[in-house]
Amino acid sequence: MTSTLADTSSQQNGTSVYGDYIKSVIRTVRDWPNPGVNFRDITPLLQNSAAFRKLIDSFVHRYQELNIDAIAAIDARGFIIGAPLAYEMGCSFVPVRKKGKLPFKTISETYKLEYGEATVELNSDAFKKGDRIVVVDDLIATGGTMLAAAKLIERTGGEVVETAAIIDLPELGGSRHIREAGHNVFAVCSFTESE
Protein backbone atom coordinates (compact mmCIF):
# COMPACT_ATOMS: atom_id res chain seq x y z
CA MET A 1 0.00 0.00 0.00
CA THR A 2 1.30 3.42 -0.92
CA SER A 3 1.22 6.19 1.66
CA THR A 4 0.37 9.74 0.70
CA LEU A 5 1.91 13.08 1.61
CA ALA A 6 0.37 16.24 2.88
CA ASP A 7 1.60 19.34 1.06
CA THR A 8 3.92 21.07 3.47
CA SER A 9 6.80 23.47 3.70
CA SER A 10 9.00 24.34 6.63
CA GLN A 11 7.53 27.83 6.67
CA GLN A 12 4.05 26.45 7.23
CA ASN A 13 4.51 23.83 9.92
CA GLY A 14 8.08 22.59 10.38
CA THR A 15 8.45 19.73 7.93
CA SER A 16 11.79 18.55 9.18
CA VAL A 17 12.80 17.83 12.73
CA TYR A 18 16.25 19.07 11.70
CA GLY A 19 15.03 22.18 9.84
CA ASP A 20 16.21 24.80 12.34
CA TYR A 21 19.57 23.08 12.73
CA ILE A 22 20.09 22.78 8.95
CA LYS A 23 19.14 26.43 8.52
CA SER A 24 21.68 27.48 11.16
CA VAL A 25 24.49 25.80 9.20
CA ILE A 26 23.67 27.52 5.89
CA ARG A 27 25.70 30.68 5.30
CA THR A 28 24.15 33.84 3.90
CA VAL A 29 26.47 35.85 1.66
CA ARG A 30 25.12 39.38 1.30
CA ASP A 31 25.30 41.25 -2.03
CA TRP A 32 26.52 38.24 -4.03
CA PRO A 33 26.64 37.76 -6.95
CA ASN A 34 24.95 41.17 -7.31
CA PRO A 35 24.14 44.04 -4.93
CA GLY A 36 20.94 43.36 -3.00
CA VAL A 37 21.09 39.58 -3.46
CA ASN A 38 21.32 37.33 -0.38
CA PHE A 39 23.04 34.16 -1.59
CA ARG A 40 22.21 31.07 0.51
CA ASP A 41 25.48 29.12 0.54
CA ILE A 42 25.09 25.41 1.31
CA THR A 43 28.86 24.80 1.30
CA PRO A 44 29.17 24.84 5.12
CA LEU A 45 26.30 22.33 5.28
CA LEU A 46 28.12 19.97 2.93
CA GLN A 47 31.41 20.36 4.81
CA ASN A 48 29.79 19.45 8.15
CA SER A 49 29.39 15.66 8.10
CA ALA A 50 26.81 15.60 10.93
CA ALA A 51 24.71 18.32 9.28
CA PHE A 52 24.90 16.63 5.88
CA ARG A 53 23.76 13.32 7.42
CA LYS A 54 20.81 15.08 9.10
CA LEU A 55 19.93 16.73 5.79
CA ILE A 56 19.79 13.45 3.90
CA ASP A 57 17.94 11.82 6.82
CA SER A 58 15.30 14.57 6.58
CA PHE A 59 14.47 13.41 3.06
CA VAL A 60 14.84 9.68 3.76
CA HIS A 61 12.45 9.81 6.72
CA ARG A 62 9.89 11.65 4.62
CA TYR A 63 9.92 9.23 1.68
CA GLN A 64 10.98 5.85 3.06
CA GLU A 65 7.46 4.36 3.16
CA LEU A 66 6.12 5.85 -0.07
CA ASN A 67 7.30 3.28 -2.65
CA ILE A 68 9.43 5.79 -4.54
CA ASP A 69 10.85 4.42 -7.80
CA ALA A 70 13.32 7.22 -8.57
CA ILE A 71 14.88 10.44 -7.41
CA ALA A 72 15.06 12.98 -10.24
CA ALA A 73 17.78 15.49 -9.36
CA ILE A 74 18.19 18.85 -11.05
CA ASP A 75 21.57 19.90 -12.46
CA ALA A 76 23.83 20.50 -10.62
CA ARG A 77 23.35 21.07 -6.88
CA GLY A 78 20.33 18.77 -6.84
CA PHE A 79 22.77 15.94 -7.61
CA ILE A 80 24.41 16.48 -4.21
CA ILE A 81 21.16 15.54 -2.47
CA GLY A 82 19.75 13.19 -5.06
CA ALA A 83 22.54 10.62 -5.28
CA PRO A 84 22.82 9.81 -1.55
CA LEU A 85 19.03 9.95 -1.19
CA ALA A 86 18.53 7.43 -4.00
CA TYR A 87 21.19 5.21 -2.45
CA GLU A 88 19.54 5.33 0.98
CA MET A 89 16.08 4.76 -0.51
CA GLY A 90 17.22 1.85 -2.70
CA CYS A 91 15.76 3.49 -5.81
CA SER A 92 17.17 4.84 -9.05
CA PHE A 93 18.85 8.20 -9.55
CA VAL A 94 17.96 10.19 -12.68
CA PRO A 95 19.69 13.46 -13.60
CA VAL A 96 17.70 16.31 -15.08
CA ARG A 97 20.40 18.16 -17.00
CA LYS A 98 20.97 21.50 -18.65
CA LYS A 99 20.51 21.46 -22.42
CA GLY A 100 23.16 19.57 -24.36
CA LYS A 101 24.62 17.61 -21.42
CA LEU A 102 22.89 14.25 -21.88
CA PRO A 103 23.82 11.67 -24.51
CA PHE A 104 21.24 9.41 -26.15
CA LYS A 105 17.66 10.48 -26.91
CA THR A 106 16.31 13.31 -24.80
CA ILE A 107 13.15 15.29 -24.26
CA SER A 108 13.39 18.93 -23.29
CA GLU A 109 11.39 21.64 -21.54
CA THR A 110 12.08 25.35 -21.89
CA TYR A 111 11.09 27.79 -19.17
CA LYS A 112 11.33 31.52 -18.61
CA LEU A 113 14.00 33.23 -16.55
CA GLU A 114 13.98 36.82 -15.36
CA TYR A 115 15.96 37.68 -18.49
CA GLY A 116 15.57 35.10 -21.22
CA GLU A 117 14.95 31.37 -21.19
CA ALA A 118 16.63 28.13 -20.11
CA THR A 119 16.10 24.50 -21.08
CA VAL A 120 16.40 21.27 -19.12
CA GLU A 121 16.52 17.77 -20.57
CA LEU A 122 15.82 14.21 -19.54
CA ASN A 123 16.66 10.94 -21.25
CA SER A 124 13.51 9.78 -23.01
CA ASP A 125 13.79 6.32 -21.43
CA ALA A 126 14.40 7.56 -17.86
CA PHE A 127 11.01 6.47 -16.51
CA LYS A 128 8.19 4.17 -17.35
CA LYS A 129 4.49 4.85 -17.00
CA GLY A 130 3.40 4.89 -13.37
CA ASP A 131 6.86 5.35 -11.85
CA ARG A 132 6.69 7.35 -8.61
CA ILE A 133 9.29 10.11 -8.56
CA VAL A 134 10.54 12.75 -6.15
CA VAL A 135 12.16 15.79 -7.81
CA VAL A 136 14.99 17.36 -5.78
CA ASP A 137 17.07 20.52 -5.99
CA ASP A 138 19.00 22.63 -3.52
CA LEU A 139 16.70 25.64 -3.55
CA ILE A 140 13.28 26.83 -4.68
CA ALA A 141 13.36 30.46 -5.85
CA THR A 142 11.00 31.29 -8.73
CA GLY A 143 10.17 27.61 -9.31
CA GLY A 144 10.82 27.55 -13.07
CA THR A 145 13.41 24.78 -13.08
CA MET A 146 11.41 22.56 -10.72
CA LEU A 147 8.25 22.99 -12.78
CA ALA A 148 10.12 22.24 -16.02
CA ALA A 149 11.54 19.04 -14.49
CA ALA A 150 8.08 17.99 -13.28
CA LYS A 151 6.65 18.54 -16.78
CA LEU A 152 9.38 16.37 -18.30
CA ILE A 153 8.63 13.56 -15.85
CA GLU A 154 4.91 13.73 -16.55
CA ARG A 155 5.58 13.60 -20.29
CA THR A 156 7.29 10.22 -19.76
CA GLY A 157 4.25 8.90 -17.87
CA GLY A 158 5.89 9.22 -14.46
CA GLU A 159 4.08 10.51 -11.38
CA VAL A 160 5.66 13.39 -9.46
CA VAL A 161 5.03 12.44 -5.84
CA GLU A 162 6.63 15.64 -4.56
CA THR A 163 9.08 18.41 -5.36
CA ALA A 164 11.70 18.84 -2.64
CA ALA A 165 14.56 21.15 -1.76
CA ILE A 166 16.87 22.07 1.08
CA ILE A 167 15.77 25.72 1.01
CA ASP A 168 12.57 27.50 0.06
CA LEU A 169 12.60 31.24 -0.61
CA PRO A 170 8.82 31.74 -0.37
CA GLU A 171 8.90 35.48 -1.02
CA LEU A 172 10.09 34.77 -4.57
CA GLY A 173 6.88 32.82 -5.24
CA GLY A 174 8.32 29.57 -6.57
CA SER A 175 6.78 27.20 -4.05
CA ARG A 176 3.39 28.89 -4.59
CA HIS A 177 3.71 28.47 -8.39
CA ILE A 178 4.63 24.80 -7.96
CA ARG A 179 1.61 24.20 -5.72
CA GLU A 180 -0.65 26.06 -8.17
CA ALA A 181 0.57 23.65 -10.86
CA GLY A 182 -0.71 20.77 -8.69
CA HIS A 183 2.47 19.52 -7.02
CA ASN A 184 3.32 19.00 -3.37
CA VAL A 185 6.30 20.96 -2.05
CA PHE A 186 8.70 20.01 0.73
CA ALA A 187 11.57 22.15 1.98
CA VAL A 188 13.80 21.35 4.93
CA CYS A 189 14.02 25.06 5.80
CA SER A 190 13.06 28.47 4.43
CA PHE A 191 14.53 31.96 4.45
CA THR A 192 12.87 35.35 4.18
CA GLU A 193 14.71 38.12 2.40
CA SER A 194 15.33 39.89 5.72
CA GLU A 195 17.11 36.88 7.26
TrEMBL record:
One of its GO terms (cellular component) is cytoplasm. GO terms for biological process: adenine salvage; AMP salvage; purine ribonucleoside salvage. CDD domains: PRTases_typeI (cd06223). Catalyzes a salvage reaction resulting in the formation of AMP, that is energically less costly than de novo synthesis. Pathway: Purine metabolism; AMP biosynthesis via salvage pathway; AMP from adenine: step 1/1. Homodimer. Residues 45-171 form the Phosphoribosyltransferase domain. This is Adenine phosphoribosyltransferase. Belongs to the purine/pyrimidine phosphoribosyltransferase family. InterPro entries: Ade_phspho_trans (IPR005764), PRTase-like (IPR029057), PRTase_dom (IPR000836), UPRTase/APRTase (IPR050054). Keywords: Cytoplasm, Glycosyltransferase, Purine salvage, Transferase. The gene is apt. It catalyses: AMP + diphosphate = 5-phospho-alpha-D-ribose 1-diphosphate + adenine. Its EC number is 2.4.2.7. GO terms for molecular function: adenine binding; adenine phosphoribosyltransferase activity; AMP binding. It is found in: Cytoplasm.
